[in-house]
């Protein structure tokens, strides 16, 4: 049985499906210097057989080194049509080419196959965040002579194992917090709180 | 002279003005337990005479205690129409009823006067995040017998003093990082980097 917040989230996704960016969420992590980082990522569905959220990232991006030092993350998701906010907290796992768990190896390969060509190209670009040099210009176009059938080493699946969901509904001014029940895997406590 | 990223941001706000939620941004802070927090807040303009971003918050909310322990914050702003993302990092100052700096006292009072009645009401509600009890129900409606002309004690102006802006433009796949020049107040370095 899936988590009780999951059906709500899927309903919100449906209600806001007309907005292409309804799957864009903001993912916060903590930098090694103790300051927060926050960036937009695309929600890529739930990991098969789990309630874990998935995203993709480049191994060379800061969120990978941040997650290695501190796996805690919080996704903030605002749905404009339904005027709902989901704050989804949890711990990140970075699934790269060295993954050993069979399910995760398969999930990473399937994710690579599922993404658009444009999304794939970026993984062949120069190092994200490094100065852009004029001689790189041709590197940003469609990469030639690159094998697109297999995920490159820098392609990572990012898995968020959720341990709290805080749902705010602005139309009704209600707020609900979901937390896992201690010692009851798959069971969640649901609490109405003041917005 | 205002910061070079400010004109860009104001242009983006204009380009996306048809979306009521173009002023909704995600604000990340770090919780005292070292985990990130991330929530949607409404951008309330620049602090008079500065390039600092302003927001409002309730003194009883977690972001106030988080900012007290660690003032570092990062705002992530996604503009759907122009397909731009601004990541705005800086340090937070919470301006509450005990503020002593004249400019900030005035800014807080003016902010209170500028917000909608509905926004004001929330500051008279029970403690945010605490369990919602049936006997509170009438507390969520329009509060009666409350003086609305003066900011209540829990009303805070939140000021973000910016020390980095990272602008990603998805239409052109370009990314620009703005950082303050050392020893040159008001001067910013601008660097093109790989997205």
List the topology elements.
The structure is a homodimer of 195-residue chains.
Chain A: H1 4-15, E1 24-30, E2 36-42, E3 53-58, H2 62-69, E4 72-79, E5 84-95, H3 102-114, H4 117-121, E6 155-169, E7 174-180, E8 188-193
Antiparallel strand pairs in A: 1-2, 1-4, 3-6, 4-5, 5-6, 6-7, 7-8
Short summary:
The first copy, chain A, is an alpha+beta fold and 195 residues long. Helix content of chain A is 19%, strand content 35%. In chain A, strands 1, 2, 3, 4, 5, 6, 7 and 8 form an eight-stranded antiparallel sheet that branches.
Describe this structure as you would to a colleague.
The structure is a homodimer of 195-residue chains. By secondary structure, the first copy, chain A, is of the alpha+beta class. The first copy, chain A, has helices at residues 4-15, 62-69, 102-114, 117-121; strands at 24-30, 36-42, 53-58, 72-79, 84-95, 155-169, 174-180, 188-193. The model of chain A has no long low-confidence stretch (mean pLDDT 94). At the A-B interface, strand 1, strand 2, strand 4, strand 5 and strand 8 of A face strand 1, strand 2, strand 4, strand 5 and strand 8 of B.
